[in-house]
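HxlR family transcriptional regulator
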Amino acid sequence: MARETVADMPEWCTVEVAMSVLGGKWKMLIVKYLLDGACRFGALQRALPGITHRMLSRQLRELEADGIVARRAYAQVPPKVEYSLTPIGAQLCGVSSALEEWGGRYRRAASAAAPAAGRAAGGAPEPGGTSGD
């Protein structure tokens, strides 16, 4: 199934445009690694250990089609291909940093709330509480 083009999306919904271009598990992680500079396919795959060869290829192609990533093939043997961010892709630096900060805050808050949720759901009794027997 083909992705909806940016031109076909409602003009008032810019979040939908951003999520169409950057949504999914891997795209922002790829962008995050490319913010450090050009990278070869193998280096990206090592940086993202859970991604398959096929998925990385697909995500890079989509990012390239959307103008976020540039692909440069060198005429040499063995073939060498590097990926880098385009100028518009490099503008995602602030977005990446903000998401990383938010993710850290969310993880800490969720970790702190998890023990309390376990106690409320009948888990371990609170310190100083009674067992009711």
